Amino acid sequence: MYRKLDFNKVNKSIDNLYLRIEERFPNSGLSKVCMELKTINKECDKAIRFITKPIYWLRIGFGILILIGLGTLFYSISLINISIENIIVTDFVQAAEASINDVIFIIAAIYFLFKAESKIKLNIALKNIQQLRIIAHVIDMHQLTKVPKSIISNATAHSPQRNLNNFELCRYLDYCSEMLSLTSKISAMFTNDYNDEVVLNSVKEIEALTTSLTVKVWQKIILINEG
Question: Which domain holds residue 55?
Answer without folding.
Answer: 7-226
